[in-house]
Design a protein that fits this description.
Length: 395
């Protein structure tokens, strides 16, 4: 694991009752994006402990009157790694940096600008911890997406395992998850989000990822991809189950056309590229699910960005190859699994006996993590900068 791909944790000292705003920052520095997860407590004047405790109890979660309680929110934010200074400025302006421990790639910068050091965490372990936490504790976290239809999945926390977690970051990791802390990275591919963004940047001259993604909306992949119909005179190859519109060869038309790069529209290139990467990931994921008899596949990572065409392509690939047997699911907090997992592991190590409690607004879900009860509810829009409302019980 290169230092650039090392997840870090910036942790401050924890204060209960004696500070009005309590914040605990998790900073996840990997390939392309820096993810931040931090907890901020409500202003004491807005909600008091009794109010939070009774709110939780009225919604079905038990609390212990003898333990201090903090109400607040888990916040999510991301920055491009190249904009590390914006990130540092943000951490500084939000005063998230007080305290800390550890060190690596950006260690000197963090030390110099914020006077904090960084701890190293295991990437796969954090991804799995984050995924398990979200799937068990957060209402409407997982959803299916097919033919433009988004449907939230009802996940029974007692019937979650086993599943395949596919994290699509710069590269792709496929992890078979069997329980809390029980997992195996069974496969991966280097053709991931970095490939889409890297090749896309070179081929279209797009200046940022969002622009490239936006272009793909308007493109037509048939201009560049060679379809079965292009090979079989416009007809299906029904005997082997291929329709005329199936892609026979991604970018295949570029070899036969007497065209140069400038003759292709950037939007068509972007569309073909997105389809190629998404299809390939969907197919490899399904094959791995098949290998281990896994019915559920959860796709995460910032490559997805809640983008309709990406999700649709992955879903179609899983559906096609599994003949409808397996299902692709996506996560609202797709890009924050590692950061959240590191946050959870921080709790395990440093906040012995601490309980994070959800303020369940309508659908309380109780989940046991490291012996603690966790309850969570969501605010804000999916996959952007949003927050999860929490109450925290100290020992
Ligand atoms: N604003 C953005 N800037 C750059 N890439 C973005 C952006 N938004 C989404 N992406 C996509 O997200 C990918 C990175 O995803 P993510 O942050 O989950 O993984 P990573 O941590 O960089 O990579 P890995 O997991 O391989 O270490 C990029 O390769 C790109 O495809
Ligand atoms: C190397 C990591 C784990 C770093 O996040 C990721 O980029 C990845 O899973 N890449 C794919 C490597 C492979 O299995 O071919």
């Amino acid at each position: 694991m290169s230092l650039l791909h090392t997840p870090f944790r910036v942790s401050n000292n924890l204060h209960f009752r004696d500070s009005r705003t309590y914040s605990n920052l998790l900073c996840w520095l990997t390939g392309s994006l820096i993810k931040l997860v931090y907890f901020s407590r409500y202003d004491d004047s807005c909600r008091d402990d009794d109010e939070l405790r009774s709110q939780n109890e009225s919604l079905g979660s038990k609390s212990d009157n003898s333990r201090p309680v903090l109400g607040g929110k888990l916040h999510f934010a991301k920055f491009e790694t190249s904009k590390i200074n914006d990130c540092l400025e943000f951490i500084h302006s939000m005063k998230l940096h007080l305290g800390g421990g550890g060190a690596y790639k950006f260690a000197d910068l963090f030390k110099e600008k914020l006077s904090v050091s960084l701890d190293k965490e295991d990437e796969m372990e954090c991804l799995v911890t984050g995924a398990n936490f979200l799937l068990k504790a957060v209402h409407q976290e997982a959803f299916t997406y097919l033919d433009g239809q988004k449907e939230f999945a009802q996940i029974d926390p007692n019937d979650l395992y086993p599943y395949l977690l596919v994290n699509i970051g710069s590269g792709v990791s496929m992890i078979k998850v069997d329980g809390d802390g029980k997992f195996e990275r069974v496969s991966g591919t280097s053709l991931g989000g970095g490939t889409f963004w890297g090749l896309g940047r070179l081929l279209t001259k797009c200046k940022n990822f969002d622009e490239l993604l936006e272009l793909s909306h308007q493109g037509n992949n048939r201009v560049i991809d060679m379809l079965v119909g292009d090979i079989y005179g416009g007809t299906d190859y029904a005997k082997i189950g291929l329709s005329a519109t199936t892609i026979a060869s991604s970018f295949g038309k570029a070899i036969s056309d007497n065209k140069e790069l400038v003759d292709y529209k950037p939007e068509d290139i972007s569309r073909s590229l997105l389809r190629m990467i998404s299809n390939n990931i969907g197919q490899i994921s399904y094959l791995n699910a098949l290998r281990f008899g896994l019915k559920r596949i959860f796709f995460a990572g910032f490559f997805i960005r809640g983008h309709a065409y990406t999700m649709d392509t992955i879903s179609v690939a899983v559906n096609f190859w599994s003949k409808g047997e397996a299902e692709a699911m996506f996560l609202r907090h797709e890009g924050f699994l590692g950061a959240l997992g590191a946050f959870m592991s921080y709790e395990k190590q440093c906040l012995d006996g601490l309980t994070v409690n959800k303020i369940p607004q309508r659908f309380p879900i109780s989940v046991s993590s490291a012996g603690n009860k966790i309850y969570c509810s969501m605010n804000g829009k999916s996959n952007g900068n949003e927050s999860i409302e929490c109450t925290v019980y100290g020992t």
